[in-house]
Write a structure and sequence with these properties.
Elements: E1 7-10, E2 13-27, E3 31-32, E4 35-36, E5 39-47, E6 53-57, E7 61-63
Antiparallel strand pairs: 1-2, 1-7, 2-5, 3-4, 5-6
Length: 66
């Protein structure tokens, strides 16, 4: 399980590590036959190279040693 403060990278951009700044829960926005779908966990990651903060799906992040 990922936590705030972990060093991570998106699996498509492993060359840009960053630190998890905040984890938020968002609505998926999809409607199913039985009602709404579950919530999505999104992490805001602050990258080390330029301090940019980008939102990623928590399932797309991988922990790395920095």
């Amino acid at each position: 399980m990922l936590r705030i403060g972990d060093t991570v990278a998106h699996f498509f951009a492993m060359h840009r590590p960053g630190k998890i700044y905040r984890i938020i829960e968002k609505d998926a926005g999809d409607w199913m036959i039985g009602g709404v779908s579950s919530k999505l966990l999104v992490a805001e990651v602050q990258h080390f190279d330029n301090n940019e903060i980008i939102e990623y799906s928590l399932s797309d992040l991988r922990t790395i040693d920095h």
